[in-house]
Each structure stands twice: as structure tokens, then as C-alpha cells.
Design a protein that fits this description.
Blueprint: H1 30-41, E1 46-48, H2 59-74, E2 79-81, H3 89-102, E3 107-109, H4 115-124, E4 130-133, E5 143-148, H5 150-164, E6 169-176, H6 179-195, E7 200-207, H7 218-230, E8 235-239, H8 244-253, E9 257-262, E10 278-284, H9 286-298, E11 305-309, E12 316-318, H10 331-343
Helix pairs in contact: 2-9, 3-4, 5-6, 5-10, 7-8
Length: 353
């Protein structure tokens, strides 16, 4: 399968100072003090966003919603920070460390790109709990790996697309050509083919790396979607973060269906002009993961190791917000059956295309 790629990265820059660990008179470190201060100050959690930042109407905004919920329930005054343009792992380490030192607990890196930074920061601040979304490689007592079965929700999106298409051609636009996004593609294609083998699936990735802007460039998403529409696709599913806004805009301009991702994009205010053409969204409850981590720390039983949010646990799914979803003959019933079959183990969804 040939995948075309484009490039460019745009997001908000945030200056972060470096950290130095100093020995204390009692033989501890400033990192140890940070852990004690976290309990005393009760500042709550801090999240550091993935590329695209807050306002992507998708992945990062979902994480933010979890922080807001924790603040309201626990009386926290949490913090959130944006990634800087072209930042290094050292920049990420400094940012996470600065948040831990100030007394935030837990500290969450949103996205697999934070793995090296979370590993390093967690070693420096053993009394602070760190969380990382979409990565399970960091193994430490004070690290919670918050991962999702994205392929399962994407399978349901594929079922919906196969039922909605009139042209027997649908599209998938991935933000970055990496294993995580391959899970979205794999589930979507399998869902389409299991529902109607005659339906053709067009696939395009925007960039090879996140630094090239695959998750943060609506113009790239729009161009990719337009190309698929020209080839006859009448339903396009995106897993491209902020770039997906361009996919949705392009589909709506031609009165074709778009399928959103991560959050319920039908409900997103910046996408209101296109909502009639957002058939559904394959969601992953990043907000819930962030909230549950914060709650576990507050309860004195911080999550550690891998915590997986799958279809059975309600961590992934598909939305029915658009009234037109239930108007397409057979669509809702087909999705409901597919969902139950996955939960019952009758259908195993692939994680690789």
C-alpha cells in the first residue's frame, strides 16, 4: 500500500527552565522534597501536551477534559503546558521535572513521544507519579502507562463507513506513519472488509514523523482528503489530530461523510459549520484516563504499570450524536452487533495493517 507524506510543524512554544538536583542537609534531594511538597500543596495534576496542543478538538483536548474534571471534583489548581517547536527530549525532561518540583502530582505526558522524558523524570522524582498516554514501554514503580485499544473503536468506524458508503469507496487519513496510527488503519480496514468486502479503502499518511506536522497541519489533512474524494471516496475516517480538521472541512465541502477521532467531533464548536457531515467519531477516553490517574493519587493508591482502556471497559467506542447516524439503514444495528462480537471475543481486531 503506497502512502504519501507531507510536512511542517506548527504549535505553541513554551520556555522551560532546566532543573538541577541539590543535596539537602538530611541527605535527601530536591526531588524528594518535591514529592513531599506535592502532598502539602495538593496542587493536583499537570499535563504536558502532544504536538498540536490544546485546541486540537481531538487528542489533547480530551486530556484537558480529564484535568478539568479532576479540578472540579478535588479542588485542584492543575497546570497544562504546550510543547515547544522542534523540542528535544531534554526539553521534555526539563518541563516534566519542573512540574514535579513545583508540587504537581501526577504529571502526565500526553503521547508516546514523552516516553524517554517520563522515564528520566520519574527516576529523578521517585515520590511523584508520572503518567504517559499511548506508551507501555516505561517500566517504573511511579509510572502509569495509560494505553488504549484504538483498533477496536476504529473497527466500529469501519463498519459504519461500509454501511454509509454509496460509492463502495472509503478513505483513511493517518497523521503520522507510526505503529500507533497503524492500529487505527488496521481496525478501520478490517471493519470495512468484514462488513462489505467489495468496498475499496484508500489510505494516506501525511508525514513520517510528528516533527513534520502530521498531527498539526489542517492544510495537509485537507489536501489528502481532497485527493481521496477525487478518487471516489464518499466516507473518510481520519486519525490525524489537528490535521483532521482539514479532512472534515474537505469532506463537508463536497457533502460527503467524515468520521472523527478521539473526541466526539460532532460536538466540537470550532467544527460546527461541518457537523452535519460528521457521521460519527471513534473515541478514546483520554480524559477518563487522566482523571482516573489523578484520582488514584489522591486516594493514596497511585496507578502503576499498564492500564488498558478497551471496548469492554468503555475506553474506546463510537458516537451516535449525529441524528443521521441512525437514519442510515442497517448502520446502527451492524455497529451494535460488531461491538458485542468484539466484547464477547468472537471478533479479534488486528493491530497492524
Amino acid at each position: 500500500m503506497r502512502r504519501s507524506r507531507t510536512s511542517r510543524l506548527t504549535h505553541i512554544a513554551v520556555a522551560v527552565t532546566g532543573l538541577a538536583l541539590a543535596a539537602t542537609a538530611c541527605g535527601g534531594t530536591s526531588a524528594d522534597k518535591a514529592g513531599d511538597e506535592a502532598k502539602a500543596k495538593n496542587l493536583g495534576l499537570a499535563i504536558s501536551y502532544d504536538v498540536g496542543g490544546r485546541g486540537d478538538q481531538s487528542f489533547n483536548d480530551a486530556a484537558y477534559s480529564g484535568m478539568v474534571k479532576a479540578d472540579k471534583e478535588f479542588g485542584y489548581k492543575s497546570a497544562d503546558q504546550e510543547p515547544s517547536d522542534g523540542e528535544s527530549d531534554a526539553d521534555k525532561i526539563a518541563r516534566l521535572g519542573a512540574l514535579a518540583k513545583k508540587g504537581y502530582n501526577p504529571v502526565v505526558g500526553v503521547g508516546f513521544a514523552y516516553a524517554p522524558a517520563v522515564k528520566a523524570a520519574a527516576a529523578k522524582y521517585p515520590k511523584t507519579t508520572f503518567g504517559i498516554i499511548d506508551d507501555s514501554t516505561v517500566q517504573a514503580k511511579n509510572v502509569a502507562d495509560l494505553v488504549f485499544s484504538e483498533e477496536q473503536g476504529s473497527y466500529l468506524a469501519g463498519v459504519a463507513a461500509a454501511k454509509a458508503t454509496k460509492a463502495d469507496t472509503v478513505g483513511f487519513v493517518g497523521g503520522v506513519d507510526v505503529p500507533l496510527i497503524h492500529k487505527f488503519e488496521a481496525g478501520f480496514v478490517q471493519g470495512v472488509k468484514d462488513t462489505n468486502p467489495k468496498v475499496k479503502v484508500l489510505t494516506q499518511y501525511l508525514t513520517e514523523t510528528a516533527q513534520e506536522g502530521g498531527f498539526s497541519s489542517p492544510d495537509k489533512g485537507k489536501t489528502a482528503a481532497q485527493a481521496q474524494l477525487e478518487k471516489g471516496a464518499d466516507v473518510i475516517y481520519h486519525a490525524a489530530g489537528l490535521s483532521g480538521q482539514g479532512v472534515i472541512e474537505a469532506a463537508a465541502a463536497q457533502k460527503k461523510w467524515a468520521i472523527g477521532v478521539d473526541s466526539d467531533q460532532y460536538e466540537q464548536k470550532p467544527l460546527a459549520a461541518y457537523k452535519d457531515y460528521i457521521l460519527t467519531s471513534a473515541t478514546k477516553d483520554v480524559g477518563r484516563a487522566v482523571y482516573e490517574l489523578a484520582k488514584s493519587v489522591k486516594d493514596g493508591k497511585p496507578l502503576s504499570g499498564e492500564t488498558r482502556f478497551d471496548l469492554k471497559a468503555g475506553g474506546v467506542g463510537i458516537t451516535e450524536t449525529n441524528p443521521k447516524y441512525k437514519e442510515i439503514p442497517g448502520l446502527a444495528d451492524a455497529v451494535a452487533k460488531a461491538k458485542q462480537d468484539i466484547i464477547d471475543g468472537k471478533v479479534t481486531v488486528a493491530t497492524k495493517p
